[in-house]
Amino acid sequence: DVKVTQSSRYLVKRTGEKVFLECVQDMDHENMFWYRQDPGLGLRLIYFSYDVKMKEKGDIPEGYSVSREKKERFSLILESASTNQTSMYLCASLSGGFPYEQYFGPGTRLTVT
Amino acid sequence: QKEVEQNSGPLSVPEGAIASLNCTYSDRGSQSFFWYRQYSGKSPELIMFIYSNGDKEDGRFTAQLNKASQYVSLLIRDSQPSDSATYLCAVSEYGNKLVFGAGTILRVKS
Among B42, B56, B97, which would you mutate to test the A interface (most chain A Cβ atoms within 10 Å of its Cβ)? Predict the structure, then answer.
């Protein structure tokens, strides 16, 4: 079974702090994704990576950056956390073949106060 | 901006009935279509995918696709209380990036 893990289930940070969210997958997938999920807005893509050290902006990259130094690990960085970044953050990894299923991690509920 | 629209619900159906969930998408170049189920407090899990016009059946689930109308639906037969969840429609053009709808809340009443 594919396993995607995230470093924390719940996180509380203060405004202005630098926040690291980590995601690890164990299936040697090349593509990994970071989403945030907010009520009524669904999942919105922040960044994705299609290979080590490769990244592309998603639909809402402002205020975020990412790092992919190893294939299995994809990190999301909030450079200076703000209250409007309070959200559920979901990491996903993509299977290499059809039907290109995305496997999600358990999510991190981040609260910025 | 590519968009995927779903009725937010909640859609309430009695146990044993057919639940019908609908989704429209804006990008005519979309090739693959997915339905994810998300229980409260959990992450999404894939339950169905479809890529050609027509119907695809898997157990109690049937996905229907009409590319001309840019419309995807999910039918759940013999609905059970355990089907109560949020159902997310997702659409892909190239098979890697997905665009998600906001989801439809389904409540199955016993």
Answer: B97
Instruction: List pLDDT tens digits, range B40-84.
Output: 989 999 999 998 888 999 999 999 999 999 999 999 999 999 999
pLDDT of residue B95: 62
Task: Quote the pLDDT of residue A39.
Answer: 87
DSSP letter string over B12-42?
EEETTSPEEEEEEES-TT--EEEEEEE-TTS
From chain A, pick out residues whose CB is under 8 angstroms from the CB of B49.
99, 101
Count of alpha carbons within 13 angstroms of residue B92, beta-carbon side: 20
CA A62 to centroid of chain Cα atoms: 14
List the single range of A43-57, A90-104, B18-32 with lowest mean pLDDT.
A90-104
Question: Cβ contacts (< 8 Å) between A58 and chain B: which residues?
Answer: 97
CA distance B17 to chain A (A): 26
